[in-house]
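Batch manifest line 287
LIGAND: 1-O-phosphono-alpha-D-ribofuranose
JOB: complex structure
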Amino acid sequence: MAKVIPASELIINPDGSIYHLNLKPEFLASSIITVGDPERVGMISQYFDQIEVKVAKREFVTHTGTYKGKRLSVMSTGMGTDNIEIFMTELDALVNIDLQTRKIKPKHTTLRIVRVGTSGSMRKEIPAGALVASNFAVGLDTLMQYYTADYSQKELAIGDAVQQSLQLGFRPYCFEGSKSLLNRLCTNEVVMGNTATCPGFFGPQGREVRLKPALPDIIERLAAIDVDGFQLTNFEMETAGYYAMGKMLGHEVLSLNAIVANRITHEFVDDPAAVVNRLIRHTLEGI
Ligand code: R1P
Ligand code: URA
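JOB STATUS: finished
ARTIFACT:
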């Protein structure tokens, strides 16, 4: 017998929508494009044939509609893996929990989720303006100190290597993205890479503005890691959280990155919106 999840643990709003996302199950498509910036949602839904739903709460903005006849949701998450933990849990609840009975549904529904986000490159050969699909992601944040999950030997070895290289007091978590989405979306225009997900934009990515980072050489340290040919390529702030939550909850997830900064050559793209738009068009066609 499936247990009843108490009201304090999974919060439903008086109108039947889920607490933070403000969505009812019927508002959601099973293929979802996610972005950090709420303003990017409209940049994507402008290409839809029609929009059936627009909902916003906090940083979570959702537009659901069709693109060339295919039903899609576009959703913003804000920044950071703490937001992704909330986002993925509530998204999953919309399809895998009966919100009336508060019980887990007997039949699991798998969502297809593609992140379209910006990112910084830690490799000279991946210039600003490149598009990168994350094969693996390593979380330098502590999200997975609070969940248990199954890791492959390779994922554990990568986590160990990163812990040793950065001399951290915990093992960073590593997960692989969806192979099927990677095969669909990592085509000629997109380079395959591995992503370091950081708990911040400045110090945790080795940027010095007024505060000195504790690991000023974090880029060199991360770029030097080689685990049987595995190498890290880029920085951002959500991908490992997506891959961890996707694996634990049983969803297909892929992160696509528009490289706006190269941290080795110190270049920043002239027109970040144009690079993001290139990635948006690519994702809409391939998802
Ligand atoms: C930092 O500027 C933000 O940009 C990247 C990082 O992951 C972080 O969220 O992604 P988005 O462009 O999707 O927000
Ligand atoms: N997003 C990040 O998190 N880092 C960058 O360098 C660029 C975008």
